[in-house]
Amino acid sequence: MDLAIRGLRVLVTAGASGIGLATARAFAREGARVHVCDVDQTALNAVAASDPAIVQSVCDVADRAAVTRMFDQVTATFGGLDALVNNAGIAGPIAACEDIALADWERTLAVNLTGQFLCAQRAIPWLRKSSNPSIANLSSAAGRFGFPMRTPYAASKWAVIGLSKSLSIELGRDGVRVNAICPGSVAGPRIDAVFANKAAARGISAATVRDEALTKTSLRRLVSADDIANAIVFLASPLGANISGQVLPIDADTQALF
Questions:
Q1: Which tens digit of pLDDT belongs to each residue from 154-193?
Q2: Is-catalytic flag, 153?
């Protein structure tokens, strides 16, 4: 299927690995022009080697000045912007609420929420000039359910949905579509580390924690980064022209988190 996005100008934050890289590659396969930013220079170097058509830059999305510099580079290179994928996020601490340091709480919200706000602020004037503008904000299944021992992460991801819903209304008259994407447990090193940390805290095996997590999904499986990427690319295409203000779970029908 031709998604009709050849030449689409796309920015993917935290695009050097995981969901971000899968999304950048999915856009590039459709002929889009893609810029990824990340805090990990080594990972960016790897993208430069493996995917030379994808433009890269270092940026901490929680740093307003860094975001400004990055957007100046993106818009100078592309001459504008059509799609923003607010993917950057961190897992935050795994601990009971009373044991979480304020600095860890603040850093989680700074990256996961304020980073999306800062990028949206810079993107909106350019998106208003686009004929096919969209924003995809990465929330999480943790933005739909309570998530014990992960309060900073869950709070940030619930807030992303509020941000997305509000922006969809605010920008609707300009034709800018805004949706929140809610991945479930995505196969890869990050969820493996989460399972391992939870297992260590409970004194059980990581395999047991993984099996418990899968019992909370109807399909009894993890999702892939490509599953998330494919949905984001569809929403940024003309085929998603009337999809906005939505909260889209891609989570093998997750019923609860633990």
A1: 999 999 999 999 999 999 999 999 999 999 999 998 889 8
A2: yes
Do the beta carbons of residue 237 and residue 4 sit within 8 Å? yes
| Cβ atoms of 116 and 137 closer than 8 Å | yes
Task: Give the tokens for residue 241.
Answer: 């022209």
User: How many other CB atoms are found less than 10 A from the CB of residue 141?
Assistant: 25
Specify the 3-state DSSP secondary structure of 42.
Answer: helix
Q: Helices in the chain by DSSP H: which ranges? A: 18-29, 41-50, 64-78, 102-109, 115-127, 151-171, 189-202, 206-214, 225-236
How far is 237 from 133, CA to CA, in rounded Å? 9
pLDDT surpasses 90 at 198: no
Q: What does DSSP assign to residue 185?
A: -
Q: DSSP letters along 79-143, please?
A: SS-SEEEE--------S-GGG--HHHHHHHHIIIIIHHHHHHHHHHHHHTT-SS-EEEEE--GGG
pTM, two decimal places: 0.95
Rounded to whole angstroms, the Cα distance separating 127 from 91 reads 29
Q: What residue segments make up the domains of the chain, in order of their start? A: 9-184+226-247, 186-222
Query: Exactly one of 105, 145, 153, 158 is catalytic; which is it?
Result: 153
Q: Which CATH superfamily is domain 9-184+226-247 in?
A: NAD(P)-binding Rossmann-like Domain (3.40.50.720)
Query: Does the pLDDT of residue 129 top 80, yes or no?
Result: yes
